[in-house]
Amino acid sequence: MNNTSSIQVIDRMALLLDIIAQYEDTVSLKIISAESELHTSTVYRILSSLIQHQFVERDEAGQYRLGVKLLHLGSHVRQRIGLREQAKPIMQDLRDKLGETVNLTVRENDEVVYVERAISDKMIRVEQVIGSRAPLHVTAVGKLMLAASGERECRDYALRTGLPAYTKNTITDIDELIHRTAEAKDNGFAYDNEEAEIGVGCIGVLVQSNSGEIAAGLSVSAPIDRRKDEWVAIVKEAGKRLSESLGYFV
DNA sequence: TGTTATGTCAGACTCCCTCG
DNA sequence: CGAGGGAGTCTGACATAACA
Q1: Tell me, which GO biological process terms does this entry list (predicted)?
Q2: pTM for the complete prediction?
């Protein structure tokens, strides 16, 4: 057992995929076995499992090649990297205009995940760690994401999570959540009024991809006493610019 | 320590090429 | 055209490792 991972078969699977990837066309079991220094039956069993999950394909001649599933997974990574690259300059510009921290989030199940940020240089500022998470109902962009998924999904979310309270301002009532998310959808932006943390307020908008799907959420976070309503138009404009840079036009 | 997952071995099977 | 042989593939049985 090598020390690169605690699961040998995962290491071997990765090795086999790397070997197959070296060949532009297809490659035989024997060659994969020789290059991996694994017994052919071991290689065969692992490849059979990979084929079952579409990570590997076999042609009519029984030769192996990488499967379409990898392309599918790769497109997710490419989309996320592309999103961050496109977002960075727009986020920095928004941060410079407002002087407050700007966050980029994506939805993952019942949470938003912070994937990029442009931090304010003010002494007192709001700062989210990249990779940290927050429930949908306590964030501005989370409410917009819930609104976009429809009232039924919004109710399901509320039942699944029980709408836990983080502050005295957190929305804990289903009907109020539905009302507030619908309102946010109509307005094209949402507030977080100290719902995740006392003293912190946000303004959030959605970012759409070229297919019109929700790609991310863009938000500005600030101490509540510094947040201004006139920022709404500026944040909306930044969200529109980012959507357009991803190929989405209204 | 028993169960489950994983790996190895050995041989059967299949396909294809060569030769008579 | 069919038998023989070799290369490659597949699978059953067993061994070993990992885990609860």
Answers
A1: negative regulation of DNA-templated transcription
A2: 0.63
CA distance A231 to A6: 50
- Token digits for A193? 């009024």
Say if residues A227 and A203 touch (Cβ distance below 8 Å). yes
Domains and their CATH numbers in chain A: 8-66 (1.10.10.10), 76-245 (3.30.450.40)
Question: CA of A32 vs C1' of B13, distance in Å?
Answer: 21
Nucleotides of C strand lying within 7 Å of any protein CB atom: 7-12, 17-19
Q: Is the CB of A10 under 7 A from strand C?
A: no
A49 CB-to-strand B distance under 7 Å: no
Give the C-alpha separation, A245 to A90, whole Å: 10
A63 CB neighbours strand C below 7 A? yes
pLDDT tens per residue across all 250 residues of chain A: 333 333 456 666 777 777 777 776 677 776 777 677 666 667 777 777 777 667 777 765 667 777 777 777 776 666 667 788 889 899 999 999 999 999 999 988 888 988 888 888 777 777 777 778 899 999 999 999 999 999 988 998 998 899 999 999 999 999 999 999 999 999 999 999 999 999 999 999 999 887 788 989 999 999 999 889 999 999 999 999 998 888 777 6
CB of A45 under 7 A from strand B? yes
